[in-house]
Amino acid sequence: MANIGIIGSGSWGTAIAHLLSKNGHHVTVWSYLREETDMFLANRENTDKLPGVKLPDDMEFTSDLETAAKDQDLLVFVVPSPVVRSTAKSLAPFVPEGGKIVSLAKGIEESTLMTMSAVIEQEIPQADVAVLSGPSHAEEVGRDLPTTIVTGARTRETAEYIQSIFMSPVFRVYTSSDLLGIQIGGALKNVIALAAGIADGIGYGDNTKAALITRGSTEISRIGTAMGANAKTLFGLSGIGDLIVTCASVHSRNRRAGYLIGQGYTMEAAMKEVHQVVEGVYSAKAGLALSKKYQVCAPIIEAVNAVLFGGMKPEEGVRQLMMREGKDEIEDWK
Question: Is the separation of the CB atoms in 150 and 166 below 8 Å?
């Protein structure tokens, strides 16, 4: 049994707390909001974000970071990407040399274009930071539905430790050394999911969705490999796997926000309606900046930015994508 601190108490943090507790670990959940901690203590359930998933009596809840981090074998970072840096900075004094942290946050920091693990490493340089990502909606993990995911770390020892902590009959974990690829896939798939949702909101069909997933995966792979990621990672669980589930699922907040935008909502109104952080909105500008920095073609990501921040009508964005100059799908002409 391990002592584990969950840093973040949204739907994903709650589902992970439920999973790790069922795996036999002692879990402490940290929430930024005292009223949320009180909700957990009173109901043993996240009644707002993951209703129906009951948490055991021996699980602890706190709004104090030192309490959440003290004497833990592992810290699980599950806060939204926009607050990863500020949370890591506050947590740093309580993490010992070599303390293990696994980040489940999906995003790229807009101002620096850093991955979430790099942000945590910068703020907590004494930590051993790993990542965990893949097709894994909280609503299904909380219901113990079979899920498969991948963990990335700088050493095999750390990756296999994370694997052993999370593995269960309903949660299979693979290992990888490609932290960069895992995180690029996890962040940029949210941007493509916004596009898929927009297409659904307009009323387009399965052909359109398949095209967005396929060509979107190409854009993610272009950016990731230009940055040094392994192409195989981007067509694995944390790449195409996470892209498929986020573009297609009713649980996807990114697809839901995109759907509303396709229906005529503004980006701000769509985010408010979803009631949770829409990571793709925060990753869209970073994805565009990365494509320009590494000089790769990413027309879908460009179009999403134009719709979100440039006032372009969704239908016009689609028209521009469809009417781009004809190209080869694969450059295989002899």
Answer: no
Q: What angle do CA 12, 18, 23 make, to 5 degrees?
A: 125
Q: Give burial (CB, 10 Å; 0-12/13-18/19+) of 46.
A: buried
Catalytic residues: 189
Strands 60-62 and 26-30: parallel
Report the pLDDT value the prediction gives residue 192, as an integer from 0 to 100: 97
pTM over 0.85: yes
Position 62 confidence tier, pLDDT thresholds 50, 70, 90 = very high
Kindly state the DSSP code that residue 6 receives in the 8-state scheme.
E
- Give CA separation, 25 vs 58, 145, 190, in Å: 10, 20, 31
The string of DSSP codes covering 285-320 is HHHHHHHHHTT---HHHHHHHHHHHS---HHHHHHH
> 172: burial class by Cβ within 10 Å (0-12, 13-18, 19+)?
middle
Sheet of 74-77, strands arranged across: 60-62, 26-30, 3-7, 74-77, 100-103, 128-133, 147-152, 171-176
All structural domains of the chain, each given as residue ranges with its CATH number in brackets, are 3-177 (3.40.50.720), 180-322 (1.10.1040.10)
Q: pLDDT per residue over 9-45, tens digit each?
A: 999 999 999 999 999 999 999 999 999 999 999 999 9
pLDDT, tens digit (0-9, with 9 covering 90-100), for 223-273: 999 999 999 999 999 999 999 999 999 889 999 999 999 999 999 999 889
Contacts 24+ apart (CB under 8 A), 18-21: 18/53, 18/55, 18/141, 18/142, 19/141, 19/166, 19/168, 19/171, 20/76, 20/165, 20/166, 21/55, 21/56, 21/58, 21/59
